[in-house]
Amino acid sequence: MQYRAELRCFAGCNVSFALTEPTYQCPRCGGLLDVQHDVEALRNRSASAWKELFAERHRDFSELSASGVWSRREWVAPELPESLVVTMGEGKTQLVRARRYGQSIGLNELYVKMCGHSHTGSFKDLGMTVLVSTVRWAIEKGLSLRAIACASTGDTSASLAAYGAACGLPVVVLLPRGKISTAQLVQPLANGALVLALDTDFDGCMAIVQRLAAEQIVYLANSMNPLRIEGQKTVALEMTEQLGWQPPDWVVLPSGNLGNAYALYAGFRLMKELGLTNRLPRLAVAQAEAANPLYLAHREGLAEVRPVVAKKTLATAIQIGNPVSAPRALRAIEAMNGVVEQASEDELCEAAARADRSGFFTCPHTAVALAVLEKLVARGVIRRDERVVVVSTANGLKFTEFKVGYHEGKLDGIASRKANVPLELPADFGRVVDAIATRF
Asked: CA separation (Å) from 161 to 25, 82, 119, 126, 187?
């Protein structure tokens, strides 16, 4: 069976393009593009047959089957030659039962989807493997490019640099100077990318990289490019399969540029369309109070998201005031009966500390989702008996400055109620015994 996918206008204009076309906006309306699959062709394989195929690939140790994205390649980029796939074994991340933390906030069944356990430490790998692989395919078809480029608050640049380096494609990343963690900065440097630290915020970097792409100086790798969505939607497939093909009742997701909200919807929708599931979960999009354009639009019942000037937040990866995927997120929220909530800096810090005390090591963006989860449970929006999955978007080890600052009480305006610092003692047995007795 030959499966097909193409780029089409998200707003419904009658235009279409091959996945290999370096086109990022509809030429008629200027809106976003979307990858659309031939669902009728996919229906020629039964739901049970799809489940068995995916299960069979879990037992396969070949390069493509080891990837959480390419083990589902018919649903992602079905015509892409397998020889051009650039994979680093992304995806297939753990779905961890958060028993102790869940019970502490009033939930019987809470899970955390550990997307930060992917190759470069964030969920961005899932989309980047599709984008970079498709660029290789486009080059084989005759595309000429100087470099692949992105604007980034850290994680996107790390992922693009790694996948570009894996296949020898040149990479340019534009970062807001002084606004990302050391670990996030060093990743693209180590992979050989041209790193441009600009004296602006993410939205300023995004404006420049969009112009570079419009003038065909670079190929655009930000989530405005719908190829990224195709890989990221496999998070929905993974968590549902890990739950025995039963979708959760709720998915709670931290989001800044808002592409991931639509990616989850795309994954859950396709499973339902093909009969693997019979319903969609509800979606809760979590934003930092300092960068909350979707929250403001949802609260006011607006049909579009108005840009804001993003303020400084510890959740640097979602410090975005003008999210390019806002129309996508609005559609996802409507389809999934979703809600949007925000978290203050103090709320996200304390949520991270509480989760860490139950065994996690929470990045500040996941902490935004946890803080929002706590609010929704306290208000009764999410009920105690509902099954909830929080998407952890990045590895906490990339944000050690955030952790150290919290526990040393050095984060401005943060009370650090659960701070824990080393107790320095002489090498004296009695003093060590006393310290243990005092603590426990």
From this structure: 24, 21, 12, 14, 8
